[in-house]
Amino acid sequence: MIRPGIFIGASMLFLGMKSTIPGIPVSSIIVADSINIQLHVLLGPDSLPDKYGARVITPVCETDKCYMIELDMYWDLIGRYLYFDTIPGKGLTKLDHKPFEERDYHKLGGILNDPNSPFVHYSKEELVENTRSSEIDGLTGATIQEIKEYAIGGAVYSCYTLWHITHGSVIDSLRKSTRSMFGADLVQKLVRKNDQMVNYYLIHSFSKEEFERFLPFVLETIHRGKGYYSKNAIEKIPAYLLNDDLAQDFFASNFAGLDYFSKVALLKKLYRDSLSENLKYALVSDLDRRNSLKNTLIRQLLSQETE
Description:
Radius of gyration: 26 Å
Strand order of the largest sheet: 3-4-5-6-7
Strand content: 15-25%
Number of domains: 2
Order of helices and strands: EEEEEEEHEEHHHHHHHHHHHHH
Number of strands: 9
């Protein structure tokens, strides 16, 4: 069944076949096994891009046996797999034409949600050892043990094909598509997700002009950053932007709350002749007696300012 939700739609082209589901096409790409899929952007209730979808239609064959895969797949705006939906009347089957059971669908969802799947290490030809015929695994030959325990019996090739569609070239295509749609509303929506992987995607995607345009949102991510994110974001921001009034006010208020490495990254990019009085006060307040790089940089900035 198709999962309920607010979206515009998804479709795919395969051997001249077109989906009847309406949508907003963003790109057509070739994925695993030369499968051509048409990616569509799906809008949320705010009328902004919310996720991507594509209808995947492809045969899976082994020797003289074939079965068809047809389902809808979905990714978020930075290319992370979300979920799949079956199509009414077109449930998945195994090589012996036995329909998927509920546990098979559940297991498939787990496989597709695993970016570190053992499938990444094998070509399709390496999935089996050509020693005997095995009807159990849906393959000619014995499925190698690691894959046999991981995949769905009778649908190993289906799992393999769908995983490579999910985690292959489609990711770059989706990220490029999202980047092409950057605007204040969409960037704000992404930032408000408070998702550090999304934030990293943004700072690695922005041009200098986009950093300038979206600086308030970048500063917001720094305020909520975890781990090394704040340091990495500060290092990505062009130095001239860290020395304008907006950034100076932000760091004057938030300098004490930055981790040590973020403070050092910022201090290395500040200009002595652009320090606001409030930021000078924040720097002085952060000084201590330790012989640290942070304290040395603060003293250099303040002493040079008075020369």
